What we know:
- It is a single chain.
- The protein is of the alpha/beta class and 310 residues long.
- It has two domains: 3-222, Spore Coat Polysaccharide Biosynthesis Protein SpsA, Chain A (Alpha-Beta Complex); 227-292.
- 46% of the residues lie in helices and 15% in strands.
- The protein has helices spanning 17-30, 48-53, 69-79, 99-109, 125-141, 174-180, 204-223, 227-254, 264-292, and strands spanning 3-10, 34-41, 58-63, 84-87, 113-117, 154-157, 185-189, 303-309.
- It has an eight-stranded mixed beta sheet with strand order 7-5-6-4-1-2-3-8, with helices on both faces.
- Helix 2 (48-53) links the parallel strand 2 (34-41) and strand 3 (58-63).
Amino acid sequence: MTEISIVVPLYNEEGNVEALHKEILDVCTKENYTFEIIFIDDGSTDKTPFICKSLHPIKYIKLRKNFGQTAAMDAGIKAAKYDYIITMDGDRQNNPADIPNLIKHLEENEFDVVSGWRKKRKDNFFKKFASRGANFLRGVLIKDGIHDSGCSLKIYKKECFQQISLYGEMHRFIPALLKIKGFKIGEVVTNHRPRSAGKTKYNWKRTIKGFIDMISVWFWNKYSVRPLHLLGGTGLFFNFLGFLAAVYTIYLFLRGYSLSDSAWPMLTVFLFLTGIQLFVSGLIADMLSKNYYEVTKDSSYSIKEIIENQ
């Protein structure tokens, strides 16, 4: 018997939640899954909360305010009880009919994660352009082997989230974070539908946040357990440049050049101080990194209520 938890973050999706719930319910019933449907309301200001509370079966989680899609997804994942966790958007652009194929691909290939690939996207030009740019940068920096990491339709084994908390726009990079930890990642082509109701929540601010989080994932991938290698190495390089500048400054002094109007003494001091600062920062970051693995972080969001309708 396949047991699945379907996690769906929502924000002002009053025109979609009821139809989406029915689609999920129909698929799970048809495939004879043991399932739970988890809708996380990320501080909606429309009728989304009222509609969700009227649905059956459902586990409805309401956040106290709009904390963002990643926080809502994290809350839903932590509330999930079954071994397979399926995430998807609440705008109905992801098709619940793809769920059986995700499960099949995961089991047949012994993956830990299978990500959906919206090969034929039904979005506007800006979203497609931003997504392709982000995918290119992600391929260069992170190299997670995923064509469409921004697709929310994914299936995970529950064990993937035993040591992961999400923040920022990190939901886009979950496969990359899991690959860093040694989990096996796969991908399968899924359907993508045009939005039929409501307004897109995607904007340029999310693009910038996503890029910043991508840099964070890159750093975590390369230097999470050895930040001293990056900052300390850069600091030593600046110290080396400072040494060369010092040698040249001494050379000018011995040749009788006036250094009162020269920038070389200041440049020498700047390079040495910068190098020392970077090296010390690397030591501090190294200690903080080790402390990270020993201390549990506080949650970045607050849940107001949880309602379970059977």
